[in-house]
Sequence to fold (189 residues):
Amino acid sequence: MAEKKHLDILGKGVSVWNPWREENPDIKPDLTKANLTGYYLTGANFTGAKLARANLNNADLTGANLKGADLTNADLGGVDLKGANLTDADLYGAKLTTITSTPPPISKRANLTDAGLIYADLKGANLTDACLIYADLKGADLTGADLTGADFRAARNLTQDQVDSSAFDPKRPPELLEGLTLPPQPDTK
Fold:
């Protein structure tokens, strides 16, 4: 469960939350299972925060710093992640359906294992070294996304068109898509 003190501080707004974070850099806020549905959290500092199983449905996380945050099994449906930093964030099992992210989030080394990225807008996202094992990418827009070193083993609903629209460089080592089975493409003849 979320720590009441941390919820109370966040409830006062980002203008109170961020200075508190600066004054207490060693505290890892515990917002586990917090209901933050629709919260306006633009620019919030959630570095290393515990947001596992939190409900962030339709929250505005534009420019938020989620570096190293634990977002396992969090509900991020409809969330706005424009310019958010998800470097080293753990999004195992997170629901990220219909997210908005232009400009794209920074997601280096993010753990997106089993994440629901259904219809997620990941245009231009930096998914360098991201783990997308078992992630559901149905309808996700990967146009211009950097997939360098991303692990897509057993990813679901990933199409060749999505890979082709990304910034994937076919001259890079083939390990990028090792073990990935793409569905057959329709015959256009």
